[in-house]
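Practice problem 4.
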C-alpha cells in the first residue's frame, strides 16, 4: 500500500503551467526525498496535493488508497495528508498548548497526549504557552510543525524544504526529529534542493524534478551525485534549459 500515490499530476496557476504529468509513489513506512533546482515545481507539487487555493490540478493524488484531488483541504487532511510548510505561519493569539487541545477535541485525547510528549522530546515544552510560532527561531518553528505532525499521526506527510533558513545545528535537529517519527504507518516526502539535510536522513528513494516533471529516480547515490556535480549535469544530459518559470515566479506574487 502506498502512503502517497501521485499519478499524472499536472498543475497550473492561472495561465502558468507548472507541473506536467508527475508520477511519484511513496510506500508506507518509507522516506523519500524530492530534489530539484529553484523553480522546478517542487513546492507546487506540495500545494497541488494539499489543495491550496489558486492552483488548478488534474490527475490523481491518493493518500492510503483514498483519492483526495478535487476535495476540500479539510477532507484531504482527514484522509491522512499533512503538509509541513516551508515558512510556517505565525498564529498570534493562539498558544501551542491551545492548538494541541483543539487537535485533541477533533482527534481524541490520544492526539493531545502524543503532541505534548513530542513537545517535551523536542525541547519545546517552554513554548507551549506562547503563541504558535511567534518569536520562534526557524528551527523551533519547524519543530513546532513536527509536534503537530506527531500528534495527528497522518498517513502521508509532505515536508516542504524543512531545512530552509536553518543553520547547521538546526538542520541536524529537525532532520533528527523527522527520522524519529518514522513508522510502518507513515510515508514521508521531504522536499529540498540542498543535499545537506540528507546527511542526517536514512533515505529510501530520491526523486529529481525539473521543468515540472520527475526526470530521475534512484537511491541515496543519486543525492551524492547531485552533491558532487549539481543539477547542471542532469540538465546537460537531458538537454534541458534552466528553469525560467514555476515556483520562483509564484513566490514573487
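Answer key:
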Amino acid at each position: 500500500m502506498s502512503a502517497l500515490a501521485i499519478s499524472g499530476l499536472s498543475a497550473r496557476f492561472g495561465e502558468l503551467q507548472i507541473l506536467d504529468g508527475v508520477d511519484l509513489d511513496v510506500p508506507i513506512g518509507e522516506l523519500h526525498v524530492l530534489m530539484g533546482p529553484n523553480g522546478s515545481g517542487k513546492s507546487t507539487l506540495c500545494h497541488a496535493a494539499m489543495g491550496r487555493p489558486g492552483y488548478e490540478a488534474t490527475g490523481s493524488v491518493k493518500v492510503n488508497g483514498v483519492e483526495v484531488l478535487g476535495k476540500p483541504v479539510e477532507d484531504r487532511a482527514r484522509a491522512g495528508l499533512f503538509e509541513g510548510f516551508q515558512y510556517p505561519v505565525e498564529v498570534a493569539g493562539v498558544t501551542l498548548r491551545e492548538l494541541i487541545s483543539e487537535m485533541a477535541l477533533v482527534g481524541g485525547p490520544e492526539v493531545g497526549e502524543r503532541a505534548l510528549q513530542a513537545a517535551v522530546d523536542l525541547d519545546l515544552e517552554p513554548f507551549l504557552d506562547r503563541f504558535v510560532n511567534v518569536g520562534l527561531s526557524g528551527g523551533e518553528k519547524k519543530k513546532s510543525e513536527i509536534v503537530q505532525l506527531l500528534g495527528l499521526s497522518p498517513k502521508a506527510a509532505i515536508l516542504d524544504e524543512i531545512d530552509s533558513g536553518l543553520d547547521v545545528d538546526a538542520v541536524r535537529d529537525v532532520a533528527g526529529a523527522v527520522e524519529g517519527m518514522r513508522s510502518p504507518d507513515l510515508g514521508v516526502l521531504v522536499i529540498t534542493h540542498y543535499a545537506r539535510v540528507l546527511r542526517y536522513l536514512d533515505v529510501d528513494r530520491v526523486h529529481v524534478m525539473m521543468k515540472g516533471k520527475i526526470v530521475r529516480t534512484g537511491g541515496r547515490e543519486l543525492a551524492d551525485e547531485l552533491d558532487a556535480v549539481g543539477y547542471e549535469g542532469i540538465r546537460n544530459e537531458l538537454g534541458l534549459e534552466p528553469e525560467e518559470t514555476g515556483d520562483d515566479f509564484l513566490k514573487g506574487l
